[in-house]
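Ticket #258: bound-state structure for guanosine-5'-diphosphate.
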Amino acid sequence: MYEDKRVTVVIPAYNEADTIGFVVRDFLDNGVCVDEVVVVDNNCKDDTAKLATEAGARVVAESDAGYGCALRRGMDEATGDIIVLTEADGSFQAADVKKLVPYLEDAGMVIGTRTTRQMVQQGANMVKLLRWGNVVVAKMLELMWYVSCEPRLTDVGCTYRCVSRETWQRIKPHVREPGPSFSPEMMCEVLIQRIRLIEVPVNYLPRRGGESKHSASWGRIFKTARGMIRAIFRKRIEGFRRAPDPWPVGPQTETSTS
Ligand SMILES: Nc1nc2c(ncn2[C@@H]2O[C@H](COP(=O)(O)OP(=O)(O)O)[C@@H](O)[C@H]2O)c(=O)[nH]1
Ligand SMILES: [Mg+2]
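RESOLUTION: The complex was predicted; output attached.
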């Protein structure tokens, strides 16, 4: 629990048997404020589901393939008032939940950034070019929403983030990317709805095992980045076209950017 709120951690997993047990235990046993871990088994061909269950997670099976499909399903299954998203590979640490969740008092979504060099650990998959690539695309996103929200962002691909249940219910009808572009799509949708978005540095570690699906090679990174940029442009156009949502009032929403 964080104060009086239940906290659910959602982990998308595709063949992560090497690491899933450690990650689930990290979140459940480390004295962080987590009440429930939901692992989304996305057609895994290995023992991910079994090992996650043994470690104490609730495992749900999702047959629609892709990171975005898995995260959507996981957030729908979550019973918490606060939903934390993270990865199955051990590249994020449970202890950082304590840095993300408190900012939900001031925002509807709190997103981690993996581009604070001091927190990128040796061997993490965040070489200079990848780090700066994320910063550049994040700045592009910032510029696109400068007038309405003036967000401050340095990463577009960080899975580690948290949302209030209310935020998820509001953005859910408008996010549909099946793959890794789901990450920036969520950010854009939050900005379209003028829900407050705050970015916080998190530690970024090397994978503890298994293989990266989105950034294993430069070809794969390029494909992921191209998809993300496309998704951001699509959302910007959608944001201009869609009738503006009524401005919600409260600490989780943008009120003015003077
Ligand atoms: N459910 C599901 N999860 C995926 C898929 N691809 C990647 N993931 C998960 O999404 C997270 C991020 O993927 P990862 O391979 O670590 O990408 P990287 O962080 O860019 O290297 C990990 O928890 C993966 O298990 C997929 O197709 N389906
Ligand atoms: Mg990863």
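RESOLUTION NOTES: Helices lie at 20-29, 48-55, 67-77, 97-100, 128-144, 165-171, 182-192, 218-241.
TICKET STATUS: resolved
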